[in-house]
Amino acid sequence: MAFNRRKFMIKNASWMLILLLLLIWEIICVGFKVPEYLFPAPSAVWSAGIARWEPIMMHAWQTFFTTLVGFAIAVVVGLVLGVAVGTYPIVYKALYPLLVGFNSIPKVAFVPVLVVWFGIGTVPAILTAFLISFFPVLVNVATGLATLEPELEDVLRSLGASKLDILRKVGLPRALPYFFASLKVAITLAFVGSVISETVASNMGIGYLMMAASSSMDMALVFAGLIVIGVMGVVMYELFAWMEKRFTRWANRGVNATAV
Amino acid sequence: MAFVKFEEVSLAYEEGGALAIKDISLSVQQNEFIAVVGPSGCGKSTLMKLVSGLSEPTSGYVYIDGRQIGGPQKCIGMAFQASNLLPWRTTLENVMLPLEIVQPYRSQLRRKRKEFEAMAMELIERVGLKGWEHKYPWELSGGMQQRASICRALIHKPQLLMLDEPFGALDAFTREELWCMLQDLWQEQPFTVILVTHDLREAVFLADTVYVMSKGPGQILVKRDIAIERPRTLAVTYSEPFAAQVHVLREHIGSIRKS
Question: Which residues form the ABC transmembrane type-1 domain (chain A) (predicted)?
C-alpha cells in the first residue's frame, strides 16, 4: 500500500505540533540567551527532570493519588446529585441556585478554610479536587436525564414500569454519553484542584514541589513539574475519552468513521 | 361483554380548559380490530392515552375487561408513529424490553432467558427481520424499525394492541406491506386492536369497525362496520365495495372539515 502522507499527517498532528513548539522554545531560549532562572530551555528542563527523577515521581504519585481520590468522590456525589436533580423537579428547583452559587466561588479561596478544618496535607487537596470537579458531572447527568424524550418514557410507562424501572432502562443509559463526556472535563479539573491546594497548603505533591523550586529560583524544576502535571492530565483524559467511545458507541455513530 | 368500553368520556388537558375529547362512548369486543379516523387534532391520540392509562379522563369512565382503568395497564402493547426504539439496544434487545418490565416474564427472565430469546426471535422472523436482530436501530430502515416496534408491542402477548399512526411516516409500498404483516399476525393469534390513523384506506383494509371522529372537541360521529371477507389482500383495495367504503368515510371527513 502506498504511503498516504495526508493520513499520516492527521494521525500524528499532535506529536508534530508538540515537537515544533519545543523546537521554537529551544531556539528562542538559546538564540536570545534567556537566562535559565527566568525561562529555561526544554533541554534544561529535561536534564532537571532526569537529575531529580525520583523526588519528582514521588511528588507526582502524591498528586495523582489525591486527584484520583477527589475525582472518585466527585463522580459518586455528582452522579447521585445529578440523578436527584434530573429526576425530581423539586430537587432541581431547591438545589440549583445553591449549586451555581457554590460553583462560582473560586476554590483557591476555599483552601484556607479546609486547612483550618483538616490541617495541611493530603485531605485539603483531595477535597479541593472533589469540590472543583463534581459540578460538571452533576450538570451533565442531570441534563442527560432531563432531556429524555417523553416518547421513550411513554413506551415504558405504557408497560406499567415504575419510576425506578424507567430510570434504569431508559434514563441512565440515555444519560451515559453525557456522563462520560463530563468525566473528561472533571478529571482535568480535579488536577487543577489538587495542585492548587498543594501550592497553598501542603508539603507533598507536584504543587508543593513547584512552589519550593520557584522560591529557590530553580525554574527548570518548576517547568518539569508543569510538564508532569500536563502529561498526567492528558493520559487520564485519553483514558476517559477511550472509555466514552467504548461504552457509548451508539451515541457517536458516524463520527469516528469520518475522523480517520 | 365488551373488552374495552368508553362511557361518556371527556378529557381536558388543563383544568377548566378546552375539551380535547367530549362524551365519547364506544365499546370494542374481544379480538375485534377497530380503527379510529379523523382529521388531525381530533383527539385520536388522547383516546390512546386514556386506554393505556397514561391520562385520566376528566369525566366519564374507561373500562378494560370490565375493570375501570387506574394507572398504566399491563396487558397492553403500544406502537407509535415514531418507532421509539432505544438506540443503545439491538433489535433483539429492544424487542425483549417488555419482558424485563411486565410480570410474570420479569421474574422468570433470569431462568428462562434462552426460551424468551427464542420467542423473540420467532416473532422477529415472523415480521421479516431475520438477520437484523443484532443490528442497532440506526442501521435499520424506517420500515424495519416499525416492524421491530410492532414486535416489541406484541412480545409480552398483550390482549390489547394500541397503534398510534404506526405506518404514518412510511412510504406507500412499505406501508401496504406492513398492513398485510399486521393482518397476518392478528389472524394467527388474535388480540384486540385499536388503530388510530388518518389513512382511510388503511382503516378500511385492516379494521372490522371504523369510527370517524370530529375535531375540537373530539366526538364520535360515525361508526361503520367493514364487512369485507378476510384475509384481505391488497387486490381487494382496488375492488368496488372497498372503494365505496373509503368513499363514504371520505365524505364524512369532508363534511367535518367544512363545518
Answer: 60-240
Distance separating alpha carbons of residues A190 and A209, to the nearest angstrom:
18
DSSP conformation letters of B101-128? HSTTHHHHHHHHHHHHHHHHHHHHHHTT
Grid cell for residue B37 = 379516523
- Say how far apart CA B80 and CA B145 lie, in whole Å: 11
Chain A (160-219) residues lying within 8 Å, Cβ to Cβ, of chain B: 160-161, 165, 169-170, 173-174, 176
Pair A191, A67: CB distance under 8 Å: yes
- Interface residue of B49, B51, B83, B101 to substitute, partner A, most A CBs within 10 Å: B101
The pLDDT of A10-24, averaged and rounded, is: 91
pTM: 0.79
* Short-list B20, B21, B7, B10, CA closest to B61: B7
Tell me the C-alpha distance between B36 and B209, whole Å. Answer: 9
A77 touches chain B (CB under 8 A): no
For residues A111 and A202, the answer to whether their CB atoms sit within 8 Å is no
CA distances from A125 to A121, A132, A203, A248 (A): 7, 11, 11, 32
Domains and CATH numbers, chain B: 1-75+159-259 (3.40.50.300), 82-158 (no CATH)
Q: What angle do CA B184, B192, B77 make, to 5 degrees?
A: 90
User: Hey, are the CB atoms on B84 and A157 less than 8 Å from each other?
Assistant: no
The grid cell for A208 is 508543593
Q: Strand B192-197 to strand B219-225: parallel, antiparallel, or no bridges (unpaired)? A: unpaired
**ω into residue B231 within 30 of 0, thus cis?**
yes
Q: What would the pLDDT profile of B14-52 be if each residue is shown by its tens digit?
A: 877 788 888 888 889 988 999 998 877 777 778 888 888
What per-residue confidence (pLDDT) applies to A253?
A: 66
**Which residue carries 483524559 as its cell?**
A237
